[in-house]
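Input record, target 12 of the design panel.
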């Protein structure tokens, strides 16, 4: 009986060691994956990053098609926007009230250059370059460029909404691109 108890204790100890070893990653971390591009051309991009890129692409496409009204529709009830040199705008209704442009008067375009997703998969952010095209009072083209960051949060109904949008006017895109 004593021999059986020793065998059971030994096997239990061995199984605990094996189980613990299986929870550890035996490989050292590799170089960080390039977060740019898409999953087909960049197999190192995670599905979570690809999801954020697709979400951002839908947001940009809706805005290009529907102007400020479409832009405002993407914001959560408690969202905040921060613009270059302006006061914060707090809340969906306030943000939507300020986004009054039409696609004919202003075209806002942006492209994400990077993204990160939270470990829980319920929040993430993207950043990149934006460009706004409009005309001045004389009908001359006006181009505004800069950097942006969008913070996304999964809502209780499962949808994803913008909870923070920040932008600043900046130098031309090619001066600041991550390499």
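The sequence produced for target 12 reads:
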């Amino acid at each position: 009986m004593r021999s059986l108890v020793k065998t059971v204790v030994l096997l239990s100890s061995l199984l605990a060691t094996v189980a613990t070893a299986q929870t550890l990653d035996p490989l050292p971390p590799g170089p960080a994956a390039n977060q740019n591009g898409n999953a087909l051309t960049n197999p190192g991009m995670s599905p979570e990053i690809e999801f954020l890129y697709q979400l951002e692409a839908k947001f940009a496409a809706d805005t290009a098609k529907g102007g400020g009204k479409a832009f405002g529709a993407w914001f959560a009830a408690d969202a905040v926007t921060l613009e270059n040199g302006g006061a914060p705008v707090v809340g969906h209704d306030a943000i939507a009230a300020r986004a009054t442009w039409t696609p004919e008067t202003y075209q806002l375009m942006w492209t994400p250059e990077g993204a990160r997703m939270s470990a829980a998969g319920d929040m993430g952010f993207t950043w990149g370059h934006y460009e706004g095209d409009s005309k001045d009072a004389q009908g001359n083209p006006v181009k505004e460029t800069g950097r942006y960051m969008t913070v996304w949060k999964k809502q209780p109904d499962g949808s994803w909404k913008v909870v923070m949008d920040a932008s600043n006017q900046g130098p031309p895109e090619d001066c600041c691109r991550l390499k």
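Residues 47-175 form a domain with the Nuclear Transport Factor 2; Chain: A, fold (CATH 3.10.450.50).
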